[in-house]
Amino acid sequence: MAIARSLGIAAVGLGALLALTSCASDPRQGYSFKTTFDTETRTVQVPIFRNNTYFHGVEAQLTEAIIKEIQSKTPWIIDPSPAADTTLSGTITNVELKRTATDPSGFVQEYGYVITVNFDWVDNATGKTLASRRSFSAADTFVPVRGVSEKIEYGQASAAQRLAKDVVSEMRTQW
Fold first, then answer.
1. Mean pLDDT value across residues 21-50
2. Which CATH number fits domain 36-170: 3.90.79.10, 3.30.160.150, 3.30.540.10, 3.40.640.10?
């Protein structure tokens, strides 16, 4: 009986200790259920990214992917007008195809589609830069070989989606 009571007291003490150390009200201080996105920002304007490459259509696909990512993963609302709280703008500086796998005869089995951007996220009221990155890249692969026959557009779309996810992740509150 005394052993069971001692075990019960130890379990309650251990539970209280875990409760005190497990969750924090501020995400910078430990695990938290609070959002890591700025809650003072309500709206974001995302003008179409400029494209300094010869790869046509990447700018529209990337901009659309970023807008969808903001809408699905953040508390912010997309506002196409200049009256938005903040503006995320950017330039595609490079797009390249890289061979990632070849067969023994030298034929390309898999390509990597790499998109590189510069972007700035600015508070429209103060002019303060909230996030800024240069030469920020993301890549994804596609398989153009017979049998699979993925088109280059598949690689472009998947790389744009990956880059959109990474850009929106960079818009989180600074830890």
1. 70
2. 3.30.160.150
